């Protein structure tokens, strides 16, 4: 499943125009602790979080994550968007809280 | 990979959250360009990111030196920071001295040093309270494939 399909199915808003939404998403990871994500998320997974600051981009980039979804209508910081665009990390937003968003992703078939 | 030793150094500035992670990203690119095995690149990236963030969060400044030989990746991260009072305690998962604003950013969960230990083959921490901390860790390239946690 591609991030583009997920974005359409769950009405996500993409904050990084031009970022690659056609990467295969291998699964999902939910956490707001950066060390947890660095230690335990897997390559190609999409990361669900409420953190909006610039350092989430470095984490996603280092781990080779397919994208970041911000929950609860949270807006990424300006420099987060800038860095994410430069590093080709898609950042999307959802109005759903993390629990519900993860459930929807699971229902779409993401393991 | 050729037989030469690749060495270099990144300077780190405390509280510079805008560039935090840049040294680890650069190091990861270097490792990839040398054709290092992906599982080893992953383990090194986790450990170097944690070490880099510790400098950004706690210290005034620091540097990350790397040397890569056909046998191993060796990283030394030295900082001018507050130092660690009790290293055994700092190695315990969940223990942290981070202030609230750092925790709100999702850092300071007390997983940094344990994450480094899990992913490195050897780790040495030395610290002088009030002066600074030096971390040295090695990841061997010649060991059989080993997944991180």
Overview of this protein structure:
The complex is a heterodimer of chains A (111) and B (149). In chain A, 38% of the residues lie in helices and 16% in strands. Chain A is an alpha/beta fold and 111 residues long. Chain A has a single domain (3-107), classed as 3-Layer(aba) Sandwich (Udp-n-acetylmuramoylalanyl-d-glutamate--2,6- Diaminopimelate Ligase, Chain: A, domain 1), CATH 3.40.1390.20. In chain A, strand 4 (67-70), helix 4 (78-86) and strand 5 form a beta-alpha-beta unit. The longest helix of chain A has 10 residues, at 98-107. The mean pLDDT of chain A is 96. Chain B has a 5-stranded antiparallel sheet with strand order 1-2-3-5-4, with helices on one face. In chain B, helix 1 (22-33) packs antiparallel against helix 2 (38-58) and helix 2 (38-58) packs antiparallel against helix 5 (112-119). Chain A binds chain B through residues 32-36, 38-40, 43, 49, 51, 53-59, 61-63, 79, and chain B through 17-18, 20-22, 24-25, 28, 42, 45-46, 49-50, 53, 105-107, 109, 111-112, 115, 118-119, 148-149.
Put the structure in a nutshell:
The complex is a heterodimer of chains A (111) and B (149). Chain A is an alpha/beta fold and 111 residues long. Chain A has helices at 3-9, 34-40, 55-63, 78-86, 98-107, and strands at residues 13-14, 27-30, 45-49, 67-70, 91-93.
């Amino acid at each position: 499943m591609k991030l583009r399909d997920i974005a359409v199915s769950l009405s996500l808003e993409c904050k990084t125009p031009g970022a690659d939404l056609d990467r295969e998403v291998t699964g999902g990871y939910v956490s707001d602790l950066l060390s947890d994500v660095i230690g335990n998320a897997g390559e190609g997974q999409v990361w669900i979080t409420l953190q909006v600051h610039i350092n989430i981009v470095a984490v996603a980039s280092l781990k080779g994550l397919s994208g970041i979804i911000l929950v609860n209508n949270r807006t990424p910081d300006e420099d987060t968007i800038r860095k994410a665009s430069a590093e080709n990390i898609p950042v999307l937003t959802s109005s759903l809280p993390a629990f519900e968003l993860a459930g929807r992703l699971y229902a779409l078939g993401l393991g | 990979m050729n037989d030469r030793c690749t060495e270099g150094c990144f300077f780190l500035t405390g509280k510079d959250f805008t560039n935090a992670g840049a040294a680890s990203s650069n190091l990861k690119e270097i490792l990839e360009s040398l054709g290092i095995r992906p599982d080893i690149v992953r383990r090194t990236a986790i450990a170097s990111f944690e070490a880099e963030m510790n400098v950004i969060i706690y210290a005034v400044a620091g540097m990350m030196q790397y040397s890569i030989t056909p046998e191993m990746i060796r990283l030394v991260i030295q900082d001018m920071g507050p130092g660690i009072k009790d290293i055994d305690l700092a190695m315990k998962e969940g223990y942290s001295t981070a202030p609230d604003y750092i925790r709100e950013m999702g850092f300071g969960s007390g997983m940094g040093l344990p994450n480094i230990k899990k992913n490195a083959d050897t780790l040495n921490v030395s610290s002088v309270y009030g002066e600074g901390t030096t971390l040295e860790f090695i990841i061997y390239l010649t060991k059989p494939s080993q997944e991180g946690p």
